[in-house]
Amino acid sequence: MELRHLRYFVILAEELHFGRAAERLHIAQPPLSQQIRQLEGELGFELFHRTKRNVQLTEAGQVFLCEVQQIFRQLQQAIQVGRQTSRGEIGQLVVGFVSSATYNILPTILRSFRSCVPGVSLELHELTTDQQLEWLREGRMDVGFVRPPVDENRFSWEIIFQESLMVALPEAHLLANESDVCLTSLANEPFILFPRILAPGLYDLIISLCQQAGFSPNVAQEAIQMQTIVSLVAAEMGVAIVPASLQNMQRTGIVYKSVQESTSKVGIAMIWRKNETSPTVQKLVEIVRQVANQL
């Protein structure tokens, strides 16, 4: 039994006339009659009552028709799902992101992705850069948003967002009323910083800026997440140099000041495994690039 036999049966059941059914199928009437007889022989029961004047479905034929129509509906659904999957429009992605990305480009990316491909389920994980690299190596994650650079040839990555660095001060700090801050004035301040292993690129840039200003920062407290660093600054535990988008957190007890010295921008990078074949991953990469180009 082939799908064409079932298709012939459905068309004849709709027309109840061999001539009209054959015309719709673009075949001659005798081959149609022969195909229906072969189908009935394979099934072991009659599908149609035939007389010289009319053709009618048997009771078994009526039941069989309902089931066959369901098969064709399922087949169309399977074709549709297959096409959507091949275009990356259906499936699931595991996505990692550094916490600071939630204050700049990530919300826009997620809104655009949801709008363009609502059939893809996203599993989001807030992870440090080093954790994301580990998850990618282990195959536990599909795409990440990290602090560059990434020195591993097994990954593809590209910067999708860049921003300035700012000084975060407690609102009662002596420099809180200044329009901007010279880094040299922070030489004797306690600093709050994250461990280097979490984001070496950003860590090294902060240390380099301080050294260019003539001092090595006195790290009084370490914290893993940017939100924690900002909260500790608000608690007057020290000062911090942070990405400018942290201002969007709107944390009370803290002020942000521009840096007088010229500083390099810091970025957020999208990262995924090289030679990735998943259409869903490629769809996310495509949408992220579109969002980045519009910013």
Report on the architecture of this protein.
The chain has 295 residues and is an alpha/beta fold. 42% of the residues lie in helices and 23% in strands. The strands form four sheets. The protein has a five-stranded mixed β-sheet, with helices on both faces. Helix 1 (3-15) packs across helix 3 and helix 5 (106-116) crosses helix 9 (279-294). It is rod-shaped, with a radius of gyration of 32 Å. The two termini are 57 Å apart.
Q: Which terms would index this structure?
A:
about 300 residues, alpha/beta, five-stranded mixed beta sheet, four-stranded mixed beta sheet, 13 strands, about 40% helix, about 25% strand
Gist of the model:
With 295 residues, this protein is of the alpha/beta class. The protein has nine helices and 13 strands.
